[in-house]
Amino acid sequence: MKLKLIDSQKRKLYKSGIILGYKRSLRNQNMSKIRVRIPGANEINLQSRFLGAKIFYIISSRLGRKPRTVWGKIISLHGRTGIFLAKFKKQVSPVEITSRIYIVSKSALSA
Length: 111
Prior knowledge:
By secondary structure, this protein is mainly beta. It has one helix and six strands, in the order E-E-H-E-E-E-E. It has a six-stranded antiparallel barrel. The chain is globular and about 45 Å long. The model has no long low-confidence stretch (mean pLDDT 83).
């Protein structure tokens, strides 16, 4: 998936966030859906911009190999405090909890 620059002045294509944990209830947890905190997305009108945005996190690999990226998508809000639910095709490893994710804006993705 190729990314293009949003603005010629800006060089940053993404906004960063943190993986908080899985979507869960008292006895069950869904490992393909995670909770994500995005700093600075506390207002309702800002939160609607992130819905449907592509996100990814980087899995570091052994020496000599390229790091892998795992792509997902923000699917819904989780309260009003800047926390979102995101869905990945594969399960997110428990090692990746509290790791950094990157949110790509919709306008930065090229078709």
